[in-house]
Amino acid sequence: IIGRFVMSKLMGKLCVYITTAVVLSFGMVAFSTAAQASDIKKWQTKIVKLVAKKQVYPRSAMRKELEGRAKVRVSIDRTGAIVGHEVIQPTGLAVFDKEIPKLIKRINPLPKPPASLTDSQLSFVLPLSWVIR
After folding, report:
1. pLDDT per residue over 3-15, tens digit each?
2. Distance CA 132, CA 73 (A)
3. Architecture of the domain defined by 3-132
4. How far apart are CA 25 and CA 74, in angstroms?
5. Alpha helices (H) along the chain
6. Which are the contacts of 133, defined by CB distance < 8 A and separation ≥ 6?
7. What is the pLDDT of residues 60-91, one digit of tens each?
């Protein structure tokens, strides 16, 4: 997990947490400079913040105090455009699972990857959580 961003919203007596983290998988990647690693970390942080900003806790789930966790594999091109996604671990609750493709549309395009990542297409796992505390 490269970065984690937590949003908290107080709604009546419920405190709703939407957490987002990005787990990037590039295979065997070696960074020749600290600057490259720093650029990648900054890019990952931008993704985490964008997803957290655009992620929605469905009202019907809040009313019923439902919680869920999912994992989505996202593939992007060099411009940051999402070229595909696959839910690799659904929440098991339709209210959240239906929200996932909507979220993917809202976050498209993602920030452009740094030049040090030279692959024409990149993929990463996006863990999503909808939690009431």
Report:
1. 444 444 444 445 5
2. 24
3. 2-Layer Sandwich (3.30)
4. 10
5. 34-54, 59-63, 94-97, 99-107
6. 15, 17
7. 999 999 999 999 999 999 999 999 999 999 99
